[in-house]
Q: What sequence folds into this?
């Protein structure tokens, strides 16, 4: 398509001379503007897609009425554990939300989800700990939901390990205090006897 447009632009003067007059020049200027706009739009779409693909969080676009998943970036597909092609077109509550159909927290229950800790059940049945935010975005006359999912599984795992270590430390400290208290009590008793 781009080659044809550039070819048309190269032949602009010749065609304008054939058609004749200012009307032809206005028409060709409009065509040239349209081609330039189309090229700029295409470059913008490529740039936006590259940005989406590089984000280290799942970004999912959902139709606010049908709840169909319209788009998902690679990190989001990785969190779910399926290729993008097997996710796009599906209904969101089967993948990213445990809510039943007709009970969407955002569109049906008017709740806000902003940086809320949640769990996601991936395709393998594994639990993925996430922080989830959802924003309503009007786009081309309809409502879209933009969901951002950040994987916090490593932080949750580290927190659980720290809690276990703290529990072990607490038990050890209590046991050590008890074990030290018994001999000290005996020594104190013997010391009292010697002093009497």
A:
């Amino acid at each position: 398509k781009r080659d044809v447009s550039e070819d048309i632009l190269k032949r602009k003067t010749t065609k304008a001379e054939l058609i004749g007059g200012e009307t032809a020049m206005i028409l060709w200027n409009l065509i040239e503007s349209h081609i330039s706009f189309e090229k700029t739009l295409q470059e913008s779409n490529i740039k936006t897609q590259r940005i989406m693909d590089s984000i280290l969080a799942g970004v999912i676009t959902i139709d606010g009425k049908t709840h169909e998943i319209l788009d998902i970036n690679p990190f989001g597909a990785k969190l779910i554990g399926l290729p993008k092609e097997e996710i796009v077109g599906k209904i969101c509550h089967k993948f990213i939300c445990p809510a039943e159909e007709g009970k969407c927290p955002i569109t049906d229950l008017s709740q806000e989800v902003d940086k809320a800790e949640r769990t996601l059940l991936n395709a393998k049945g594994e639990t993925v700990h996430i922080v989830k935010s959802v924003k309503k975005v009007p786009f081309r006359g309809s409502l879209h939901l933009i969901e951002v999912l950040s994987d916090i599984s490593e932080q949750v795992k580290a927190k659980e390990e720290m809690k276990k270590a703290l529990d072990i430390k607490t038990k050890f400290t209590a046991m050590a205090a008890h074990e030290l208290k018994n001999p000290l009590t005996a020594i104190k008793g013997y010391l009292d006897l010697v002093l009497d």
